[in-house]
Amino acid sequence: MNTHYRDxxxxxxxxxxxxxxxxxxxxALDEVADTFAKAKADPEFTxxxxxxxxxxxxxxxxxxxxxxxxxxxxxxxxxxxREDLNHTGSHKINxxxxxxLIARRLGKTRLIAETGAGQHGVATxxxxxxxxxxxxxxxxSADTRRQALNVARMQLLGAEVxxxxxxxxxxxxxxxxxxxxxxxSVETTHYVxxxxxxxxxxxxxxxxxxxxxxxxAREQILTQTGRLPDxxxxxxxxxxxxxxxxxxxxxxxxxxLFGYEAGGDGVETGRHASAITLGRSGVLHGARSYxxxxxxxxxxxxxxxxxxxxxxxxxxxxxxxxxxxxxxxxPVTDADCMSAFESLCRTEGIIPAIESAHALAGAARxxxxxxxxxxxxxxxxxxxGRGDKDVATAAEWFDLxxxxxxxxxxxxxxxxxxxxxx
Amino acid sequence: MTAVLQxxxxxxxxxxxxxxxxxxxxxxPAGYPDKETSIQAAIALIENGADILEVGIPYSDPVMDGPxxxxxxxxxxxxxxxxxxxxxxxxxVTEATGAAVLVMTYYNLIDRMGAEEFARRLAAAGGAGAxxxxxxxxxxxxxxxxxxxxxxxxxxxxxxxxxxxRAQMVAExxxxxxxxxxxxxxxxxxxxxSDVAEQVVEASKAAGARRVCVGLGVSARSHVEEIGSYADxxxxxxxxxxxxxxxxxxxxxxxxxxxxxxx
Lengths: 422, 263
Description:
Chain A is of the alpha/beta class. Chain A has helices at residues 26-40, 43-57, 67-73, 92-106, 119-131, 141-146, 148-156, 171-185, 202-225, 240-247, 275-278, 316-324, 334-348, 354-370, 391-397, 404-414, and strands at residues 12-13, 16-20, 63-65, 77-82, 110-115, 134-140, 160-164, 189-191, 231-236, 256-266, 271-273, 281-284, 286-290, 327-333, 378-383. In chain A, helix 5 links the parallel strand 5 and strand 6. Chain B has a single domain, classed as TIM Barrel (Alpha-Beta Barrel), CATH 3.20.20.70. In chain B, helix 8 links the parallel strand 6 (157-158) and strand 7. The interface between A and B is large, with 34 and 40 residues.
C-alpha cells in the first residue's frame, strides 16, 4: 500500500504547489525554506517549539468522545480532537509559534499576517506579544464586521489591524494586501501565512507545525479505543487544520479521510467556497491548486457563513490528495453546518467555531449514511476552534436576539471603527 | 529558440538607442475607463513619445499593484471586462501606430486560457509579447514553449534581491528585455528613484542581459533622465494612469511629451 503521502515535500505536490510569486520575494522564500529545513533538524529548535506547545499552548489537546452528539447523528462513535482548547482558541497557534521561532532565526522583528475569521490574526498577535515583535494583521473589512470581537482581541494584544477595502473584502484580499506589505518590507518582516497554501515552503512548513494534531490524535485514539479510527473529518478552507490531523493517518490505508469544504448556499448556487468540488486548476497567491475562477481566470468571490473558510482556493497538497483519491472532499452547506453547530452546543456543552462545525456536519452525515451497520465504527472530528467569536453570527442565524432593530444597532456599535485603519 | 525570431521590443529599444536615448515604455490598463478611450489614450501615449506600450490586463488579485492601478482595474472589471477586449486593443493600437505593444498580465489569466492559446491570440493581434510580474522562470515551462512557438517577447523581472544565479536565470529566460525592479514594493509614484535601480541594471547586465529597462516608482522627467543614463529603457505606469483618470487621453499625451522630454 501507499506509504508516501505523509511526508510529501514541496515545492510540488503532483501538479500542484510551486512558487507563482513576484521575483522580488523569491530570495525571501529561499531564505525561509533554508532556515526551516535547518531548524526542523536542529534539536535546539524542536525542543523550544515543543516546549512552547506544552507550556504555552497547553498541548497535548484532549481527545473527547462526544457520545450524545454521536447518538443524535447516527450510530458511530465520534471523538473530538480538541484544538478549541488551545491557548487563543484554535489550532492556528501551532503554526504561528513555529513561524515566530523561524522569524527570530531569520533576524526579523516584525510579523505580518492575513486573517479571515480572526483566529490566525489573534494567534499571530499573541506570538508577536510573546516574542516582543511588531505585528500588523490584514483583515478584509467585511470580516472585521463579522468578527469584531477578534479585531478587539488583536488590538488588545498590541497588533495593528488594517481593514482591507479592496475586492471582496475577505480573506483573499487580506492576503493580497499582506503580500504588498511584504514586498516592501521583506528586509525586516516575516509574513506568517496562516494556512497550507501560498508559495513553497509555506504548504510544507505550515503542515509541519500542525502535524502534532494528527500525531497526538493517533496515539490518543489507540489508547482510548485500542484501534485506529474508521474515518477522520476536518473542515477545509486553506486546509491547515485538515492537513494537520490527516497527517497522522495518511499512510494508514484503513482510515478514510474526509475534508469538508464550505458549501455556502449550495454549490449549485455559485455562492460557496468549495474550490476542490468545483475542480478548476489555477494559480493564486503563489501556488497552483484548485481555484474558484471564471472563464477568463478572474478569481470568483467565495461565500461562506464562516469567515475562516471563505477562501477561493485550497492548499496544494489537498488538491493532490484529492486527485490521488486518498482524501474525499465534499461541500457542507451553511444550513447543515449550523444545524451541527447547534447540536454540539446542546448535546455536549461545547460551542464550536463555525468553521469546525462543517466537519461536525460532515461526520454526522457520514454516520447517518453508515446507519446501524456503523455502530462499531469510530470517527475523529478535528474540532479546530472554539465558537466564542461566532456567537453574534450564530445568534443572528438562530434569531436569538429579541428585537431585530436593536440587533442591527448592536452589530454596528460593535464594528471596529476606532483604531482600524481603512 | 528558432533563428527567425525577432523581438519587436528589442528593436524599439535599439531604435531609441540609435538616437542616443533610453526607450520610453508607458503602461496603461486595458479598457480603462472604456475600450475606445483606452485605445485613444494608448495612441496618444505613443504619438507623444512612448516607444513601447505596455497594456495591463485587469485582474482580480493584482498583488504587485498599488492603489491607483488597483482602483482603475477594479473599475474595469466591475463593468464586465472580458479578456477578448485586450486582443482587440492590442490590434487597434498596433495597426494605428506600428509600435511594439506588450501586455502586462498576472499569470492565471494566461493559465486559464492555456499558454499556447494565449500566445496564439496575442501574436495574431500583432502583439509583441508579455510581461508577467508573478511568473518566475522556474515555473515558466509552458509559457517559454508558447512564446517560442509564436515568436513573442517574454519579459521576466529581476529584483534588487535577486542574486547572481537568479539574475542569470532571468536574463536567459527573457526575450526583448529584462524588467529591472527599481525598488522593493508595488507600483506607485515615488518622489525619488533609489540607487538600487542602477545596481539592478548592473547585476542584470553582468548576468548576461543585453537590454534592461527599469520600472516601479518612475513618474517624472527627472527620473526618466536619471534612469535613462544607465538603463536601456524607462517604464512609467501609475503617473500615466492617474493622468488618464483625471484628464483623459489628452492628459496622457501631455504627460508623455513631458516624460519623453518633448515639451
